[in-house]
Write a structure and sequence with these properties.
The structure is a single chain. With about 550 residues, the protein is mainly alpha-helical. The protein is about 65% helix and about 5% strand. A four-stranded antiparallel sheet has the order 1-2-3-4. Strand 2 and strand 3 form a beta hairpin. The protein starts with 9 loop residues before the first helix and ends with a helix.
């Protein structure tokens, strides 16, 4: 579809939003207001559960016809939401948009030409006039002025005020509706820090940024940042800190100490600061100091998650596999997950024999545990199979079934034994184990029917499943058994379906009605196989007469030819 003079069409809006959001956006056409057309963007408000700001960027010459931003929760995640669709459709329905864009270009060009012609005094007077009527603009310019003059005390006072959440608090915390306004102030603080660096005051900017990061960490718990806007603004402060550190050629030893203290402190909640982003500033000496500090912290708190994570990041960055293995080995999880992690790291380093040894060590280390990480067993079986040690893989799968009575363990044993032609004998032993569980009421599953029934059904051993079903099957297994038996044992399957139809008479709603229709269709298949369609017709007629007041059910039965 060729693009029109606007640069996009409905097809592109549908592609960007998806069919669901596009159709919902159509319903918001009457909710669009305040449409402002610029040279390269359209701004509007959309009234829904709240009033949302939408901006569409018209991308002429960029390879894309339109992109959109909305401050609704869905739009904040980067999605082209229904509000963007509504504004886009409004643009398409206004044939004057190309002319309005041309007019906007002319206005922008005229404004630039006029400003260029003004004298210095006239420009100062104009700015002062605007500042008098725009508090936010005045605040931004005051920060710029303080940064340009190196007035660190004034700048610190203003930045501290910007990250103070109290003006936004209503009941002791910043509510969701006010978080965006607070985030804008945090972004202003980041701008001020960058301006301070640009003004040749990078050392002061480093210290002030660190104070700001600390203050943000202290107050973040009082903010409903469900959309993450405050966190994003806080990252802008971190970026400003990083920029200042580079410009100031920050002392690596001091920076390392600050980074470790931050990552291990409470302030890290507001921003996921990665100390390795500072690697170029830290240099080898700073990285070594940071690792030394992290090791000391880990010694003080061996099970501290933050301490372990920091140490792991630093060791990985230096590519020290042996140190990484030593770190993991200090805290081996009883389920075997850490053994597997070590094996994978050794595999990645090309040390496969050591990897296998660590994985094999995990089995006896976990032998007394009720839960063993199945990925460790999978890893070992894969290694054994590649090395043509298939008997070892089968033995391991057999042991897992004994320890973990589940259909998955049964299937994995079947696959391993089947690969070497030994499934028939293994199956008898496995079924005997599951049959004993079922007999003693240890079904192998916390809820529902027995694992024995699951195994027989998975094998499609219908005759054995029918023998075990009474007393051992739940409704799901009964229906699966009936489905497998419709052609071979239609009378038995029919009895199951009719019993289940009786069970779903009481519930109401589409889900229950669709289930009833499905059961009736399968019962019809059984009657056809038995050549008793007259009985089925009579049964359905009686059922419809009994439930005739349920109009939605009647509609669903009609749709399925029942």
């Amino acid at each position: 579809m060729a693009r029109n003079a606007v640069g996009f069409g409905e097809d592109e809006l549908r592609t960007l939003a998806g069919a669901r959001s596009f159709e919902r956006g159509v319903g918001y056409l009457d909710a669009v207001s305040g449409l402002e057309v610029g040279d390269s963007a359209v701004i509007a408000r959309v009234h829904g559960s709240d009033v949302y700001e939408v901006e569409l960027t018209l991308g002429e010459g960029t390879g894309t016809g339109v992109s959109g931003w909305c401050d609704c929760p869905y739009g904040q995640e980067g999605n082209f939401c229904k509000h963007c669709v509504a504004v886009g459709l409004t643009v398409l329905r206004q044939g004057a948009i190309p002319r309005q864009r041309a007019a906007a270009r002319a206005r922008a060009s005229g404004l630039e030409a006029w400003l260029t012609q003004l004298s210095r005094d006239e420009l100062v007077a104009l700015v002062q006039e605007q500042v008098a009527g725009d508090r936010e603009l005045r605040r931004r310019l005051e920060l710029r002025a303080a940064a340009a003059h190196g007035d660190v005390d004034t700048l610190r006072e203003r930045v501290v005020a910007l990250v103070d959440p109290r003006p936004f608090e209503r009941f002791g915390y910043v509510e969701y509706a006010d978080a965006r306004g607070y985030a804008r102030q945090v972004e202003e603080a980041a701008d001020a820090l960058r301006a301070l660096t640009a003004g040749g005051q990078a050392v002061q900017a480093v210290r002030l940024a660190e104070e700001t990061i600390r203050d943000l960490g202290e107050v973040y718990g009082e903010i409903d940042d469900s959309d993450g806007v405050v966190g994003q603004a806080a990252h802008a402060v971190v970026d400003a800190h990083m920029q200042a550190c580079r410009a100031a050629r920050a002392d690596p030893q001091r920076l390392a100490q600050w980074l470790v203290a931050h990552v291990l402190g409470d302030a890290s909640d507001v921003m996921d600061l990665d100390p390795l982003d500072y690697a170029d500033v830290l240099g080898p000496a700073g990285l070594a100091r940071m690792r030394q500090l992290a090791a000391q912290a880990l010694q003080r708190s061996p099970r501290g998650w933050a301490e372990q994570y920091l140490m792991e990041r630093l060791i990985k960055a230096q590519g020290d596999v042996d140190a990484l293995i030593a770190l993991y080995a200090k805290d081996l999880l009883p389920c075997g997950a850490t053994h597997l992690r070590i094996a994978e790291e050794l595999d990645a380093a090309g040390r496969e024999s050591e990897a296998l040894a660590w994985a094999e060590r995990g089995l006896p280390d976990t032998s007394t545990q009720a839960y063993v990480d199945g990925r460790l067993v999978d890893y070992l079986c894969a290694r054994y199979t590649r090395a043509h040690r298939t008997a070892k893989a089968v033995s391991l799968r057999r042991d897992r079934l004994r320890a973990e009575r589940s259909l998955t363990a049964y299937q994995q044993l079947r696959t391993a034994a089947g690969a070497v032609g030994g499934w028939e004998s293994e199956r008898e032993v496995a079924l005997a184990l599951l049959r004993e569980d079922a007999r003693q009421g240890r079904g192998g599953r916390r809820f529902g029917g027995s694992v024995l029934m699951d195994a027989l059904l998975d094998d499609e051993d219908v005759d054995a499943a029918w023998r075990e079903a009474p007393g051992g099957a739940d409704d799901r297994q009964w229906q699966q058994l009936a489905d497998l038996s419709r052609t071979t044992r239609p009378a038995d399957a029919l009895a199951v379906y009719l019993r289940m139809v009786e069970q779903v008479k009481e519930p109401t709603g589409d889900r229950a009605y669709e289930r009833m229709a499905l059961l009736l269709q399968r019962a019809r298949d059984c009657h056809q196989a038995l050549d008793t369609m007259g009985e089925f017709t009579a049964y359905v007629c009686a059922l419809r007469a009994e439930l005739k007041r349920r109009r939605k059910l009647m509609t669903i039965l009609d749709r399925h030819g029942l």
